[in-house]
Amino acid sequence: MLEQVNRKVVDTPSAPRASGPYSQAIISNNFVFTAGQLPIDPRTGRLAAEDFEGQLRQVLRNLEAVLQAAGTDLKNVVKFTVFISDMANFSILNKVFSEYFPESAPARSAFQASRLPLDVLIEIEAIAVGGK
């Protein structure tokens, strides 16, 4: 018989609302597991930018909002999973990540996806420590 898992749902209006049967993030045993974040401006509900770098920066702002609501932040991320529509944008991904994480960058995987929700150019999910 499985034990009941200690988990808490994270929900913040500072990031785009979940558009289906999932949570923005779950806290379990001091870890925060986020859902994939899209480049949607939570104030307008619309795509924040057309270009890859603008979309990436909005995704990171959305992740930061979810992580803050969970009691942690980007500096406590231990793993990112990145889905991008075109690997030609990989150098931009690295440039922006080097700004956010100049030292001790988290582990990261990146995959080209043939199509992302709403035809966005990027989606990122994270695992962080320090959730409350």
Task: Explain this structure.
The strands form two sheets. This protein has a six-stranded mixed sheet, with helices on one face. The radius of gyration is 15 Å and the shape is globular. It is 22% helix and 28% strand. The chain has a single domain, classed as 60s Ribosomal Protein L30, Chain: A. A hairpin with a 4-residue loop joins strand 4 and strand 5 (46-47). With 132 residues, it is an alpha+beta fold. The model has no long low-confidence stretch (mean pLDDT 94).
Distinctive features:
alpha+beta, 8 strands, single chain
Topology of this protein?
Blueprint: E1 8-10, E2 25-28, E3 31-34, E4 40-41, E5 46-47, H1 52-69, E6 77-84, H2 90-100, E7 107-112, E8 122-129
Parallel strand pairs: 6-7
Antiparallel strand pairs: 1-2, 2-3, 3-8, 4-5, 6-8
CATH superfamily: RutC-like
Order of helices and strands: EEEEEHEHEE
User: So how many helices?
Assistant: 2
Counting copies of identical and different chains, the oligomeric state is: single chain
Q: Strand fraction band? A: 25-35%
Uncertain residue ranges: none
> Can you name the CATH architecture?
2-Layer Sandwich
Write down the CATH topology.
Answer: 60s Ribosomal Protein L30, Chain: A
- Mean pLDDT, to the nearest integer, reads 94
Domains counted in the coordinates: how many?
A: 1
Judged by helices, strands and strand pairing, the structural class is alpha+beta
Annotation, overall tally of beta strands: 8
CA-CA gap between termini = 27 Å
The major β-sheet equals: 6 strands, mixed
Per CATH, the class reads Alpha Beta
